[in-house]
Amino acid sequence: MLSKLKYFLFLAGGLICGITPAQNLKIDSLRKLVATYNADTNKVITLNALADQYLNLADYPKVDSLCRIAIVLSKKINYELGLANAYNKLASSYYYEDREDTVTDIYLEALRISNKLKYYPGIATAYIGIGEVYEDIQEYDEARAKFDTALTFADKVHDSTDIASALQDIGNLFEEQKDYSSALNYHNKAVSLFLSQEDTADAAMAINDIGFIYLDIKNYPLALQNLNKAIMLGRQDSDLLSTALTGMGYVYYLQGDYYKALKFCNTSYEISQERKQINDLINVDSTLSKVYEKTGNIALSFKYFKDYVLLNEKIFGGKNQNKILKSNLKYITELKQVAAKAEQDKKELIAEQDKRREDIIRNSFIVGFALTLALAFFIFRNYLQKRRDNIVILKQKDEVERQKNLIEEQKSKVEQKNVEIQEKNKDILDSITYAKRLQDAILPPLNLIKQYLPESFVLYKPKDIVAGDFYWLERVNDTILIAACDCTGHGVPGAMVSVVCSNALNRAVKEFKLYSTGPVLTKVRELVLETFEKSEGEVKDGMDCSFCTINTKSREIEWSGAYNPLWYVVNGEIKELAPDKQPIGKTDSPKPFGTQSLNLPTGSMLYLFSDGYADQFGGPKGKKYKYKQLQELLLANASKPMNEQKALLEEALNEWKGSLEQVDDILVIGIRT
Predict the structure, then answer these.
(1) Higher model confidence: residue 458 or residue 231?
(2) Fewer CB within 10 A of the terminal residue: the chain, N end or C end?
(3) Of 64-73, 149-158, 214-223, 560-569, which one has max mean pLDDT?
(4) Does residue 665 sit in the same domain as residue 529?
(5) Residue ranges of the alpha helices (H) in 158-237?
(6) Which residue has better confidence, 339 or 663?
(7) How far apart are CA 374 and CA 372, in angstroms?
(8) 399 assigned to some structural domain
(9) Angle between helical axes of 319-327 and 120-136 (0-180°, round to 10)
């Protein structure tokens, strides 16, 4: 459980992540159960469980509504256990909504009932919540006392989740006090407990905290190791992803690896933009501004710095500080005492003013005479000051002229630098254009594809001049082998990887005489890793692939996939062959790729593709196109001629994209059997 300060810094002012299918199913199930129960304890238990789901999704209005219903019903049927749980969840919701003025009172009510029932999990939860309030106002001794008490009660019932949460809170406390050794000790204990309960989401968040602690103490290898581990463990949590990716980008920035810094920060920026995670955008805008400043791109550096300032002012314009002060119980008492003293001082001041009024009248003549003398003195002094000011103004004018000349000189240098940059850009563009000719040489000619597969089309739209996506074709006797491949990255880096992967496909078929799809992809992975192992540094690049063979006589179809599926349309329905969930490249637990077979009636459609089309941003809300919409488009046009299908795909893509930039290479291959 993160402290509120970290919550604001890293989770973007309230989660806006989408509900996963499993979460949606659980919420629907609980809502149906609530409707079936009468006003009894089962209904209260189900209302609290449903509130817990919405609390995980940060939908605080729904949490508030469900908890209030549970509180009213619990009081009506005198169900104190349900009442304690409802108060704890309501206080947690208020805490993240910045309603600190009532959070502590609600936690104390939950604590009172839990103590009465000797309900130790409820006691532990309440003490954790109260401890976080004290931590926010930097009352660290009080916060530590509350967390230690929570640990005591959680340990009594062996509640590993509450124990881990309290350990993580204590770790956050030590981190804020810069006691990093103690912070790491408590966070590692929390990770072990979360993993023992198979709670990968909270474990990933704790590991993410460990990564940022190592960043604080400048241990960059361990910072990268833990942030990457958090990403792999919590990859379904977009908020954790954007936070960890920005952290990795910042580490690479500190190490001077600006290419990797931009790679991770731009990915985080896309996620934060799509999810409207404002505080994550603040962090990544700040880092991007610094990276672009180091790479000499002053225009982009200024753009991201301006975005950072505007968002920072929007979120932290003083509002949060006032709310935090309101939650400090100690300061509330002191403020009341100060207000009472101020009222008493006011009364005493009025009495004193009455007494002194006579003295003022008596002394007014003396004061008037003194003021006359003072006025004469000030007039003379102002005369002297005006003379000095005129001299300063003349000097300032000279300085302004000098600065103006300096600016003109700098402007001339900038213009000269722009000319040099334009010349360099032209040289780079010429080199990339020539590289495209080389990459085109590895692609099979479209007329050869039409010769072997007359009823087919290829929609190929690189994001840049060269691409990481490529298509591949080979004929062996009566069998046509065809693949749609998506290499890591796009542009020049992606194109370089595509050359390695295309060569590996050619070797697997021509040199090693492999024709079945699964063994071919397994051999390709072996050849790609063999190539990259020659590098001095660790290379994790590779590709995703949808690979198909078609026997033109027997009409038998074999298929294998690395992350990318195969879609086929038969009898007016679109179906899918699921791929192996591993890339053609370095992976922790490599397995041989499987082979799947199909026998389809004449006229069926096969579709092989990369993820570029589905990931394109656009439409009225600037969101991704998504795979479901792509399936509907392909199914609607599957019966049409090949050229018309390709034209309709291009037309739909252009209409969806509008004025937005293409975000990735796009490849779709259609084949009629």
Answers:
(1) 458
(2) C
(3) 560-569
(4) yes
(5) 160-176, 180-196, 200-216, 220-233
(6) 663
(7) 5
(8) yes
(9) 130
Q: Are residues 469 and 351 in the same domain?
A: no
Q: Are residue 468 and residue 509 in the same domain, yes or no? A: yes
**Position 320 pLDDT exceeds 80:** no
Residue 546 has pLDDT above 70, yes or no: yes
Average pLDDT over residues 607-611: 96
pLDDT, average across residues 365-385 = 68
Domain end residue (candidates: 117, 149, 175):
117
Strand partners, 558: 549, 597
Residues 327 and 381 in one domain: no
Residues 455 and 566 both lie in one domain:
yes
* Residue where a domain terminates, one of 406, 437, 468: 437
Asked whether the whole model's pTM tops 0.70, one would answer no
Q: What is the pLDDT of residues 512-527, one digit of tens each?
A: 999 999 999 999 999 9
- Residue 233 falls inside a structural domain: no
List beta partners, residue 584.
Answer: 543
Task: Look up residue 588 and give its DSSP letter.
Answer: S
Written as one letter, the residue type at 581 is K
Q: Average pLDDT for residues 247-254, to the nearest whole number?
A: 91
Distance from C-alpha of 393 to C-alpha of 223, rounded to nearest angstrom: 55
C-alpha to C-alpha distance for 27 and 17, rounded to whole angstroms:
15
Check whether 437 has a pLDDT greater than 80.
no
At residue 460, φ and ψ (nearest 5 deg) are: -130, 115
Question: Residue 465's closest CA among 485, 438, 442, 497?
Answer: 438
Structure tokens at 310: 């505007």
List phi, psi (to 5°) of 585: 170, -165
User: pLDDT band at residue 368, thresholds of 50, 70 and 90?
Assistant: low
Look at residue 138 in the predicted model and tell me its pLDDT.
82
487 shares its domain with 525: yes
In a domain, 232, yes or no: no
Determine which helix (DSSP H) or strand (DSSP E) holds 483, and give its type and residue range. Answer: strand 479-487
* Banded pLDDT at 595 (limits 50, 70, 90): very high
CATH code at 486? 3.60.40.10
> Nearest to residue 492, comparing CAs of 471, 469, 464?
464
| Domain housing 618 | 443-672
Q: How many domains does the chain have?
A: 4
CB 131 within 8 A of CB 92: no
555: left (phi over 0), alpha (psi -120 to 50) or beta: left
Torsion sign (Cα): 396, 398, 399, 400: positive
